[in-house]
Amino acid sequence: MSTQNHKIAVIIPYFGCWPNYFNIFLKGCKHNDWLDILFFTDCHLPQEKPKNVTFIKATLHEISLLATKKLVIDITIASPYKLCDFRPCYGVIFEDYLKDHDYWGYGDIDLVYGDLKPFIVNRIAEGFDVLSNRSEILSGSLAFFKNTNFIKNLYAQSSLLIDQLTAPDYKGLDETAHNHTTWQEGDKLDLPPHCFTYLIANEDKKGTIRASFLSTCKEQIEGSEIIHYQNGLVSFEETSLAYYHYVCNKNRYEYRLPNWHDVPTSFFITATGFYKTDKFYRFINNYRKISGFISNILIRIWKRLTKN
């Protein structure tokens, strides 16, 4: 889709089975109909989808062959998670699908999209070439890049590119190579020089590109914090967010993900998961905390017993 004369696409390869929260992601896509979402997947195709979402049937093996051809490196992608290392290369790997787009991006699907436009289009209008949604790192959850030959080939400057891409396990190439310097208020240029955050920050410092590192999302809910969703808008403490990424919450024992076929127009999210209404909220919230605590204890005991 286009907005203010810019066509913008998000590339998302996804393999296996859709998660039970997938409809929440599609709901967010629908409310951002100016943005093209391109899935490459072997999952079953949903019966209903937003007009701006396209599903392209592909297998992980076929993506490996495409990456081998485009990058001129012998590639075997061992697992879907390994694809994250290839994100910096998506502008080249999927260039045939991006010919009409001014910006391309990548992202996750464990997101609740709010209104993305003010956080993306406004920065493009200001002349930024790279848009991160975290100030600390180049955000793997959602990031955008101007579709130029220079930017889409920046990945090739990575000093360990071939070693990182051909390794079977995920190396964190798209973010910080598993280095925590910037999460501890360190400089991006102190990161490993082969990771994409460093490469982008370095080019920004040299003035060859303009990069915007801006925290527009929330990726963890703690204590009594509440995120609200209302008719396509996501807010926290009355401040609008681009999106909520539940990466830090979803694997906690007390956190419950919904299996909503029809996603409500209004809901809220706490440290224990998603809620349609505040009716019985306190009771359910406390129940989830207690059951999560007990589950955690039982699993620890089981691990110790089986280890011995």
Radius of gyration over C-alpha positions, nearest whole angstrom: 20 Å
Q: What structural class do helix, strand and pairing data support?
A: alpha/beta
Gap between N and C termini: 57 Å
Q: What is the CATH topology classification name of the largest domain?
A: Spore Coat Polysaccharide Biosynthesis Protein SpsA, Chain A
What's the CATH architecture of the largest domain? Alpha-Beta Complex
Mean pLDDT: 93
What share of the residues does DSSP label as strand, in percent?
Answer: 15-25%
So what's the overall shape? globular
Number of strands: 16
What portion of residues is helical? Answer: 25-40%
Give the uncertain stretches in residue-range form.
Answer: none
Count of spatially separate domains: 2
The total count of helices amounts to: 8
Largest sheet: 8 strands, mixed
Order of helices and strands: EEHEEHHEEHEEHHHEEEEEEEEH
Would you give an account of this structure?
The chain folds into two domains: 2-212, Spore Coat Polysaccharide Biosynthesis Protein SpsA, Chain A (Alpha-Beta Complex); 218-307, no CATH class. The chain contains eight helices and 16 strands. It has helices at 22-31, 60-71, 90-93, 117-125, 149-152, 161-166, 196-206, 281-307; strands at 2-3, 6-14, 36-41, 53-57, 103-107, 111-113, 130-132, 142-146, 211-213, 217-218, 227-230, 233-236, 239-241, 243-245, 266-270, 273-275. The model has no long low-confidence stretch (mean pLDDT 93).
What brief labels describe this structure?
globular, alpha/beta, Spore Coat Polysaccharide Biosynthesis Protein SpsA, Chain A, 5-stranded antiparallel beta sheet, 2 domains, 308 residues
